[in-house]
Amino acid sequence: MNAVRIIGGAWRRRVLRFPDSEGLRPSPDRVRETLFNWLGQDLSGQICLDLFAGTGALGFEAASRGAARVILVEKAPRVVAALQENAALLQAGSKVEIIRGDALQYLPSTRLKFDVLFLDPPYHKGWLASLAPHLAPVLQDDAAIYAEAEYEIDSLADWRTVRRGKAGSVFFHLLRREPV
User: Fold this and answer.
1) pLDDT, tens digit, for every residue of 28-63?
2) 87-112: string of b/e by CB count within 10 Å (b at 16+)?
3) Which of 14, 56, 118, 132 could form a disulfide with 50 if both were Cys (CB 3.0 to 4.6 A apart)?
4) Strand, helix or coil at 17?
5) H or E segment and range at residue 38
6) Coil, strand, or helix at residue 33?
7) What per-residue confidence (pLDDT) applies to 23?
8) pTM for the complete prediction?
């Protein structure tokens, strides 16, 4: 089993374990620290969606920092089982909901409106372009999107990159909606 550590909030220093799975790349500590500096350390009351949850590091980190509700969507059964074990270990209760499913099927099926969307899809499969048309109905007007990709992103649907960084070969971005 592999491991990643939660770096802030109520579950700081807790270790999440996850299995090997194709394309699974946990966001490094330094990148997550930068992300939560951008978003703010306190996500109290926010509803977050970790659409390609993988290790769950981004979603669990948001819950640790006070998010009211975090939905983790993951397709791989072994990875879903690990997410459920980690949620139980953290005693996340109803704060964290884990859904086994496909991202493109989940978005049109939810009635929730999210404040923060974490997107770290498998690389080289065109996921970001496929998801773009489905984002507006599920995001609040002032929602933030955090996206990791193998290339730089300037925009995603109505959202424009306002902060960016690079760690190794990974580009990471914070996007906000352009004012109308």
Assistant:
1) 778 889 999 999 888 999 999 999 999 999 999 999
2) beebebeebbebbeeebeebbeeeee
3) 118
4) strand
5) helix 29-39
6) helix
7) 66
8) 0.93
